[in-house]
Fold ATP-binding protein.
Amino acid sequence: MLFLEGMPAAHAHLSTRGGSVMKVLIGDTVVLKQQAGNPIGIVTRRNGNTLTVRLPWQDNALERVSRSDVEPLAVGMADARMRQAKFSNSLSLAGQSSLAELVKAFGYASDVKMQRSSLGNVVRQLERAGLEVKPTTGSWDRYAPFVLGLKNALLEPPEPDDDEADEEAPGLPFSFALPQPFWPSALGLSQEREVAFLRALTAPEPILALLYLPDSRGAADWLQATWEGVMGWAYRSAQRFIRSPGGGEPPAPEVVRGPPTLLHGYLRPSVLASEGPRLQDGPRTLNLVALRRDADAPVDHQRLLSTWPGPVFEFDATAISSEGTPVSRLLLMVGGKHEKATDDFVADLSPLKLVLWSREACAHGAAQAMNSWGETLKRAPFSRFKGSNESATALSLKARLAQWVGLRHPNLELEFEHRREEVPDEDGSTQEVTRTDLHVEALGSFEVETLVGSGPMETFYHRKIFSRRKAGESFSLVVPGEALLWAGPFLADIAHHLGDEGAVLIPAAGTAFARLEPRPLTENASEVKDPQEARRESTIELVERDVDRLPKLEDVAGYTAVKQRIQRDIIWPERRSALLRNVSRASGILFFGPPGCGKSLLARAIAGELEQEVRLLSPSDLRGPYLGWGSLMIREQFDWVVEQEKRMLVLDELDAVARSRRNGQMHSDEKADVNELLVQLDRAGRLRRIIVGTTNFLGALDEAVIRSGRFGRYVPVPPPDLKEAVEIVSYYLKRLKRGGPRVFVPSDAELNDVLAPLFLEKRKGQRFFSGSDLEVAVTEAYWRCAQRDTPVDTLDAGEAPVHLTRDELAAALKGGPRSVSEHSIRRFLREAQRHCDAELAEALAQRFEATE
C-alpha cells in the first residue's frame, strides 16, 4: 500500500487557491484522510457526494467514501509547494524524482510501457490544482526528472466549490456517469469492438448482429427481447444522425428480427424461405438473430460471415453474469431517472420492462415541456425563439431549457437564437460569425442538438461544438436522452474536452437536467488476428498424418487401472449425455501424480475416444509479455472451446497458472489470471465442455480452482507397477521395429525377468521408475546395440540388423534415472487420500508399501 509518509501535519485538510477545495472528477487521485496512513485511491464513479474509489495498492479493491473524507492528491502537492515544505520521503517535487515515480505516486502503472494517457491525466490534475509540471531535461521520457512550479492561479481569490454550490442551489444539474461496462459489452460484445459497433450504427452498410443465448431458459427470455429492443431503438436513432444527400429525408432504416433459420437460408435459399423473412444486406439495414451457438449455428457459418457485405458483431450472452444491471441503469438515465440509477435500486428491475418505460418517459418529457411553454412565455416573452429548420424535438428541448433556467434564475434575460459578433474588422464593420440557441449573460451559451443530420461524428465535434465555443465563456451542449444509447461514450468525450468551462446536459425527470460526467474516449485495439494465426486456424482441410491422429486408450501402454477409471467416470458419461442431461456434473477433469507418468498422454486419449478436437496448452500459452495479457489469452482459448461442440482443452502443468492466491509473493496480475480462469471454467462447465488439467503439485492449486463444480473428477496417475512397466517397455521396443532397420528385441517373459529384481530393489529404496524413465532406458539400450552392430565404415546402416539384448536393456535400466522419489510418493498419497475415495486411496498406498 502507498502511504504519504513524512507529510506535514498541515495536510490534515489540504487546500489550494487560497482555501477553496478543488472539484473531484472521475479519474482523479485522492487521499483518504480518514484512514490510517492516508492511502490513495482513484475515483471511478461519483454519485452526488459519494465517491467510488479504486485502491491501487490494495489489489484494486473498490471502496465507497464521502466527498468530505477525501482530498485530491494534487492539492496536497500544491500545498507543499506553496509552503516550500517537504511532500513525502519517497517523492521529491524539486528535481530529484522522475516522471515515472510521479505517475506511480498517483496510482498508475509506471513500467516500461507507461501509458502517455496516465502521465497526461496526472499533469491535468496538477494543473487544476495550480501546479505546472516541468521536466528538467526538456523531454517527457519516463526517466526524466521533474519539478513542480506554482501557477498564478494559486494567488487568485478563492472560488466557491462546485459541491458546496450544489448544496446551496439544488436546481443545478445532477451529475451522473455512464455505466461501465456500456450496454453493448454488458450484453456480450467484445469491448475491443464496442467503439466500432457504435460507429457502425450511424453508417449505411448493412449490419449482421448475432446474440448467442445461454442455456438458461429464464435468462434467454429477457435477454433476447431486451437486446432486440435496445438494438432497434439505438439503430433507428443513430441512423438519423447522418445527413442525407441533397438535404432531404433519409430513407427509413429497416430492422429485421428473426430465428436462426434466417442464417441457414441466406446462402442456400429455398422455395419456402422466399415466403418468409429474409436477411437484408442492402444499405441501412440491421439484422438481429438470436441463436444457441452449438445447436443453431449453420454448418457454413464461417462462409456466411466472410460473404456478408457489412460488419458482423457477435454478442456472447453465455458469459453474462450481471443480469442486465448496466443496461437497466442506462435505460433509467435515458428516461430521466439518473438519481435512481444505483445498483441497489436497479437490481430488482426488469430490463425488458425498462425498455418500454424508457421510451414512454422520453415521449412524455417532450410533451410535458411543450405543455408548460405558455407559462414560460407569460413570465418572460422573447423576440425570437425558433430557428429556421428546427424539429419538434429541438423545440421541446429549448422549451424545457427555458423553463429550467427560468426557475433557477427568474431575473436573468434569455436570448434565444443569439448571434455572436467578432470585433470590428479593417473597414470598421463587425462580422457576424455564428449563433447559439440560448445565451444567458451569467450562465453562458447553450447549444441544443437533437443529433439529427449532424454527422459524421468528426463534423459534429467541429461544427456543432468547438466552432461555437467562445474562450472564457461557459458552453453547455443539450441533447435528448435517447442519444445516450448510441452516442453516450462520444458525449462523455465531448464533456471531457469541454473541461471545467462546459457541460453536456441530458433531460431529467420533471423540469431538471442532468450533467454527464466526462470520460475520454479511447479507441480499443482491433480484434484482427495476426496472419500467421489466421493461417494456422484455417478451415481448409489438410491431409491427415499419423502424428495428427489422437491416441485412444488402447494406444496407451500400461496404466490398466487408470484407463478403467477413465472409461467408467469420463467416457461412459460423455457418450450418454442425453441420459444424464438433468444430472449436475462438473466437466473438469484433473490428472495428478508424479512427473513423467503419462498424464498428458492420457488426457489426449480422452479426446481420441470421444472424437473431439483438442488443444494441449502449456503455461506459456496462457501467459503474455505484458500485464493483463494472461487474462486475455485465457479468455481467447476458452472462447475457442465454447464456440463449437466436440472441443476440449488440456491445461498442462495447471499449477503454474492457477497456483494459490494465498501466496504472499503472488503478483496482482497472476491473481487476475486465476480469477479469469475461474470465470472461464464456470462458463465451459455450463456448456458441458471438457476441460482437463494436469499437475504434479495438486496442493499448490488455488482452492477455488479445485472445488466441487469446477474440477469434479480427480484421476490419480501413479508410476507404473511391474506388469505395467513390462507393457510400456514392450511398446517402445516394438516401436523400434516399425519401418526402420531389422531390430531383434527381448520377449515379454525376458522383460519380466529383467524388471522384476529392479522393481523389488526400488520398492525397498522407495525410488520408482516413471513412464518416461522406461522410454529413456529403451532409447539408451538401442543406441548402444546399434553402435555395436553397425561397423564404422558401413555407409548403408539400414542393411545391418540390430540385436537389442536383455543384458544391454538391464544395464540401461539399472544405470538410468528413477525420477519418482519417496517424497513425491508421500505427497501423491496424501493428495489421493484427500481427493479420491477411501478404497482407491488404500489401494494406492498398498502399491507403494516398502518390502523387507
